[in-house]
Amino acid sequence: MEIKEPKVNDHHIVNTYKLKMSEKLTFGLGDFGANYSWTFIASFIIIYMTDIVGIGAGIIGTIIFISRITDGVSDLFMGTVIDNTKAKMGKAKPWVFYTAPILGLLTFLLFNVPDALGQTGKIVYIAVVYTLISTIFYTANNVAYSSLTSFMTNDKKDRVSLGSIRFIFANIAVLSITTFTTFLVDGFGGGQQGWTITAAIYGLLCALPLMATGWFVKERNIAEKKNDQHKASFTIIMKVLFKDKYFILTLVLYLLWYLRQTENGVRVYYATYVFDEPNVMALLSTAALLPMIIGLLFAPKIAGKFGVRKSVNMGLAISVISYIIMTLFSESLTMLLIGLVINALGLVPLQAALSAIVADVGDLVYWKTGVPVQGSVFSLTSAGMKIGSGLQAAIVGWALSIGGYVAGASTQPDSSIAAMKTMLIYSPFLMVVLMIITMASLNYEKFIPIVKREIQEGRVGKDRTEHLINY
């Protein structure tokens, strides 16, 4: 039987057809590109600024923190912009496509700080370029890209599948960046020259895949306002979202997920000063990411068999075990690698499910209120991501500064090594424990099928079945 394109009317969302694998892969390609800005900056900005540009780690950490706070605020508005966008290309697609080349160029500029500017001029340059990336162009691009999970389909399995494929591509990019960047920089002559050529390559790898995603995927699942009393204004959207407990829990979950990632920014330091070999970072990154890439191939089947919430909780329990191993054997390379592998497998279910959880919460809020929030729900969780990742990057800089890190030194004081261990093991361990607590309250899965059926029938807002869920 021929499957036709879904239609959208002014009252409800009709069911969408199953996505083809080619379109899922095209969607996933976008996160591959995004990480050649996001992960490249998160993993190497501090060591580039301290060891090449000569700016203190504490100063860079503060710039990152301030920019990410303003970034989180800009995310709040970007979701409303997307929800109110009416372009021939779609709601989210034009933002993904047109911001991609600018994002690639700015990423290149961030790793090319002009030496002639002097110390104050360098700090101003870094602050301006970093803020343009994080507060404006990455925000517009990433909020739009993330919301495509909702705009492309309302099918639960497809949403989990999109999340898995997205993060397979993302983790391939992260693994490539964290494994090969130091080799590329050295291979292209080291120093500023090495960073310039590497950043140019990464700028292209950022822009081109995102442009492909923005051009080729399709938006089919567009929620329309239920009636004229529910205009998608910023004030109304914020009100309905922040009154919903499941949205708040999801926001907290995103914040914790990215606060956990202090390990990304400290791996190069840990490899250099605990194991006395910078290229050990490649082993650490491979152990942390390759099992996750493989595990994400099976995540949709695991979620389908056990349910999203149960599979996530089982995975987080495995992650706890891994951190106990790493705590006990923090200076044994073999045991640390084993712990990283176990941890990667444990985190697979949650990473695969994050986008699906956000899309489901968007459906819940729309069902309850009749207010379309498909873009805004992703913008606010993106704010959690930005604030969380900004904090984790800043925390790494602050921790190194407090620990007495000496840039370019052959050895570091014990306090600096302790700060590195905290960022790689102890702080992420705490975040995983807090995620387990958060997931215990995120129990919407039992009634979401009924909610989606009511949405398909146009029973949203005041027309929904009131007794289905006690908010």
Automatic annotation (TrEMBL):
SUPFAM superfamilies: MFS general substrate transporter. The chain crosses the membrane at residues 40-66, 95-111, 123-144, 165-185, 197-217, 240-259, 279-299, 311-329, 335-359, 391-411, 423-444. Signal peptide: none annotated. The keyword Chloroplast does not apply. Keywords: Membrane, Transmembrane, Transmembrane helix. InterPro entries: MFS_2, MFS_trans_sf, Na/Gal_symport. This is MFS transporter. It comes from Virgibacillus xinjiangensis.
